[in-house]
Amino acid sequence: MESGNLPTNSSNDGKPRDLVDVLNQTARGRLQTRRSKLNDEIDKELRLRAGAENLFRATGNKRLKELVAVELSFFNSNIQLLKEELCELNSSVNIYQHANSIDSVPMVPLGLKETREVDFTVPIQDFILEHFNDDGTKYTPYINQLMEFRQNIRVPQRSESGVIQLLTYYNHLSYLEKRFYVAGRNLGIYFHWYDSLTGVPYYQRAISFEKGSILFNVGALYTQIACKQDRKELSGVNAAIENFQKAAGAFQYLVTYFSNAPSMDMQRIMLHMLVKLMKAQSLECIYEKMNLDGISPGLLNYVKVAKMAAKVSINYTNAHDMILVDTVKQYVPFSWTSMMLVKSQFYKALAHYYIALALMEQDDSDDVGKLQELVKVLDITSSSPDFQDMATVLPFNSEKRKIQGKAHYRESVVLLEEALNTHDLCRQLRKIDLFQGVLRETYERALKKFENLEEEDDFTDLIKVPEIIPESQYNVEDIYPEFSDHSVTDLFQSLGPLDIFSANKLWTAPRDIHLKKDSQYGFGFSIRGDCPVKINSIEPESPAAESGLKAGDYIIAIGEEDTKWSMHDEAVKLVRGAGESLTLKVVTPMGENIPEESPYYERKRCSSVGCVYPAKSTVDDDNTTDTILKNQSQRHNSVHNGVKNISNHIDNDHSNNNNNNINTSNTNGDLTTHTATTNNNSSKDFNRRSKTRNKFSATWQFIRKNSSKVFNKFEKKSKQDDLASR
Length: 726
Fold this sequence. Notes:
elongated, Serine Threonine Protein Phosphatase 5, Tetratricopeptide repeat, four-stranded antiparallel beta sheet, single chain, alpha+beta, disordered N terminus, Methane Monooxygenase Hydroxylase, Chain G, domain 1, 726 residues, disordered C terminus
């Protein structure tokens, strides 16, 4: 857990007044308010305990150590009591159930993670100023909009619209991460989240912690939506099945794409357990769907229901086994552990109960063919002697069916008694009247069936029944969140295209280039690409070359028009309309290879702006016609000779100290100057010649020198702030 300066609360419980009013409107909201207050109290006690522990280690006074030790014991007791109270809130499943679920088995919902307010304003404005060289205050409305999105997800609606709120904010975080976050650096924004089950606070500066917490709340919200469905109706039970699958998908997505979470509720082993629990509850809803209109008469219909009940039981057993792992057992509420064990026993008892009904009370119970199908469901292939003896009492006549049915009734009664005992041992479960009523009713019904088969003079030994092979037809799949269904617009898109103007790209400070059209060369440069357009080539001895314009520069403004998002044709139109003078605002990328100049007949999506070429155009691979802007005068030499003599022109320019060639940064950050040629042989000659060319233009030297200073100063300041915060 990282430490740092956290934002202050705007009210006693850390929430604005209007947010508290929204929470108090529903029973679930009031429960969430209680959870929030407990989280704040736990946070306070933990801080006090941490201070007392520091004092205990620092002091050498024996008397003071004794006093601090007493205070530490009080702090530990208070924290334990608060966690127990929070555990009771997590065990309050009744409040999340539908009103018509009185005689249904309750489902386990998951509480939302609580968070504190975050102020993005100053960190984002500072980053925009330092990295993008733009006025950060212009983006204050967009920052406020982002903070409003975050405020809304603190109290999402318990419906699909609440999920949309969470996923919308998650998509905005993805844009924020690409735009302002780079590996090894952060904005200094602390994201403060409480553990869902223990209330322990955790805070980090990593935006992945914020995104992971949002996804966890997506899964938790799906569990609450599933629990509140009316499972007595077909639409309700279908919605419950789907939402439990979506909850499992959200938690599985966290397991797959997020790691090293600070809080226990987002650890891998905990998320694996939650995935198994959600799948078990989804299967339980499928079982309820099968019995929604009652079970149709017939031996095989009851066998099918018994197999499904056995499958639900096994899934709850698997989830219960994961809870028994030491790292999870001490963290998960005891009521959850008990409920999973009770449900495992309950559905196993139902499986034996329905097998007994199939043997004893169906009109086709004497059908040998159907009885053979029933025998396939019973696992009698075990090597146990009890199961071998059972082969002698296969239910192919009425007497043997009675022996088998009675044994299954007895097994059902025994399992239901164990479930009731487990339920009564848990104090939180005893408060769930719905569950206790379902268990008691099922137990009395099975016991009555068993007692009706008892006879005073019947001294036949009860056989040990085999396990019931679970149904394999129904499989529950994880449904991952559909982020693309809730696409958003980048709030900071006016900074430019994200693939270029992002935190992991570096460029020089913007500079203005003033050009006057020349009678021979025009403006002397060509452009290519879209959003933004890029300088493709510079004509030697042209106005563009003399002004310090470089191949590879991005044009971010033409005149007063921002061109970060301008298409190629739009930029050409602006240059054409400039008249005899043109003002460009450009930036030069740093730390990456600048593409070489392309001969005009090979260019893709490229326009020669102000350069004098013959009126010739070609069509590229995208069926886009290259635009060739002509000046009033024409170049006297031919196209072929012009291309062939590019190197000669550049050599002459170099001798005159007019270094207008394309610049490329190598891996060490040093600049080497070379010229793009049209064949491999000339490129080899150029590599030999380039070693002697180490001079740069005065404009480029000034830009490179000052940009490096600014960047190094920013890096040094960031490291100092990081050390200070630690």
